[in-house]
Amino acid sequence: MANFVSPFANAGRFLTNPVFRKAVIGFSGSAAITAAGMLLSPVISRLYRPADYGEYAVFSILLGNLSIVASLNYLGALLLPRRIERFAALAQLTLWLSTLVSIGFLGLLWLFEDHLLSFFDIHRIGGMTYWIPFLLVLSVLASCLQSLCIRENKYSVRAVSDVSANLSGKGYTIAHALWFGPSPGGFILGDVLNRLVAVGVVLARLPRRLLQPLVVPASLRRLFKTVYFFRRFPTQVLPSTYLNIVSSQLPVLLFKKFSTSAEVGAFAFASSMLELPVALIGGALSPVVMREAVQVFHEGGVDRLGQFCGSYFRKIFLALAIPFAAGAILGDLIFPAVFGAQWQTAGAVACLLASYYAFRVNYYIFVSVYTIVHKQLYDLFFNAVLLLARFVAVYLVVQSHGFLAAVGAYSAVSLVLTALNSYVLLAALRVRAWRVAIEQVAYFAGLLAVLHFGRLGLQHFIAKG
């Protein structure tokens, strides 16, 4: 049974360990992206309407679903191979699969474009859907190159790529609105530029010797051996990952049917803003934790892995609980003040979703550990239950009690099941998960209480004055 020390103990040793040093480089890139997002989002939110963001959200759902299916989620296995030859073969296999799916989707789009636009109610996007096949291949290529950066400890290259791509994409989105006016196309073409820059920067900055294994085509024999070696990965990991993706996209699709495009945009925008801290910490720590966790497991087994994950699990929650608690209490004031009065509904959505996102971060970072200890079926079970619970909550509530009530129901079931999934993972690593759960729930509830009474006191003071 893994034992915990206080999360505030041994702080100096934590700051100097190799995992933290590697994460700091990735964190610097994620921090720059988050800062750019926070600085540019108020500009973008005043140039575009919630309905524009709602249309783009549906476009992103189509692209995300195809990316997962096309790659068979092999992207999540790229950091597992020890030998560079096997890594290169797996990356090339993933690129071949995504290319074939892109060609197939292009044919279906040509034949059934009108039906697709009608089914998802995205007529304003129109011909822009033809960017999906190109973006699919481009995004898979970018993911393969970034995994190569992590494998070769080139975290600085990955950070520069992420920052450059993010700034380029957002810069074009702003320029598109100023030049052509607001439309979903501004977001889509900004996304295209984002992926192009991400690939270009990595290709330009990585040494040729590191790129060579990816450039040399793998033989069919090696590709088939790679398929056989990872034969269980698609069946054990893909269903869980896909269910998780679909369940997160579910409210957008249901709100598109039963609400307005503006409410869909409000939900998508609030979710994207709450996702920024997740991307900031998760984007920096997740690949580092995965790489180090594999090594720790090979050296010390499950007990050592439990100590490693348990320690970081607590520290990360302590760091992120405060801003999410602030979002839960003050989101309805922050959003209209920062992003404009038209995003008042998005502020209310942020208040309802913030508590869920506070517990989502650790799941985002540590879920890949299920693969290391061969417990993927646990995650599959929880994601199947989560999908069903979210569908029932949103579908029933949105028709009887309206949009915001449905968002609250979605957030409640998401919080409970996501947190429970994380604690089951800790228990699988022989960590006292019940103890961690009590500490984190009590800590977050205390933060909410303090901020809530602080807001009431401030409002009373202002009203009295």
Automatic annotation (TrEMBL):
Regions that span the bilayer: 23-44, 56-80, 87-110, 130-150, 316-335, 341-359, 380-398, 404-429, 441-462
UniProt entry tagged with the keyword Transmembrane: yes
Keywords for the protein's UniProt record, in alphabetical order: Cell membrane, Membrane, Transmembrane, Transmembrane helix
Coiled coil: none
Position of the signal peptide: none
Subcellular localization: Cell membrane
InterPro entries: Poly_Biosynth_Transport
Bilayer disposition of the protein: Multi-pass membrane protein
PANTHER family named in the record: LIPOPOLYSACCHARIDE BIOSYNTHESIS PROTEIN WZXC, PST FAMILY PREDICTED COLANIC ACID TRANSPORTER
Family: Belongs to the polysaccharide synthase family.
Protein name: Oligosaccharide flippase family protein
Source organism (scientific name): Hymenobacter ruricola
